[in-house]
Structure formats: C-alpha cells, structure tokens
Specification:
By secondary structure, the chain is mainly α. The chain has 6 helices and no strands.
C-alpha cells in the first residue's frame, strides 16, 4: 500500500488510527509517521503549501495548514488553536488530512513535484 492509499484510509476512518479531533494529535501522528519514513512522507509539504498560497512564508506546514483551514480565526499559526472552537479544530484536522492526500499525489508524480519546486524557487528570488 502506498502512502496516499494509507492516508485516504486515515481520512475516511481517523478514529481507527487513534486520531481524535485534536490538531496537535494529528500533527504528532504525522510527524511520527514521517520519522518512520526517514522524513520522506512530508518532504516538500511545506513548499507545496507555500506554492498553493502563492507567497513566501517562514511558517512550517503545521501553521500554514491552520492559516488555510481557519482564516476567520484572528491570530497566526499555532496561536489560532487558542482562539478556536472544538468544531473549528476538527475542521483543521480534516483540512490537514485532505491537504496531505492532495500533496501526496503531487509528491508521487516526478514531473509535478519538479514543477512545484520550480514555482517555489521563483517565490524566493
């Protein structure tokens, strides 16, 4: 089973993988999985999110996803969790998993990945 198929299963049944509606728990799950893959799961995820946004950012993927998932919450990055409701946090978890599966399709396509890195580099003159 490839990573994308695995995470499609996580998206459809998050509780089966020990995920609750906590964004921090979902992040830790992904960081652990990434470590088990020697950093190969999430390599390029931050850059991909920056390219989607279309502007350079100093934030990591964890904060970039929160900014995309919770634009109505006033604050930056991780601080959004302090000001969000449980429903908003659940939405952030769902968005994180959705973005990850979308990213994995790009990561697994060599030409799409090369184009993404080219666009990323153009954002950082």
């Amino acid at each position: 089973m490839n990573d994308r198929k695995f995470f499609e299963g996580v998206v459809s049944r998050p509780g089966l993988y020990g995920l609750d509606n906590s964004y921090k728990s979902a992040v830790m799950f992904l960081v652990g999985f990434d470590e088990a893959r020697s950093g190969g799961l999430l390599r390029g995820f931050t850059e991909w999110l920056v390219v989607r946004k279309g502007e350079p950012s100093g934030f990591g993927w964890q904060a970039l996803v929160l900014d995309e998932a919770l634009p109505e919450v006033e604050s930056w990055g991780w601080n959004k969790l302090d000001r969000s409701s449980p429903e908003q946090e659940q939405r952030a978890v769902e968005r994180l998993l959705s973005l990850l599966t979308e990213f994995l399709a790009t990561r697994d396509d060599v030409l799409a990945l090369a184009r993404m890195y080219t666009r990323y580099q153009s954002l950082h003159p």
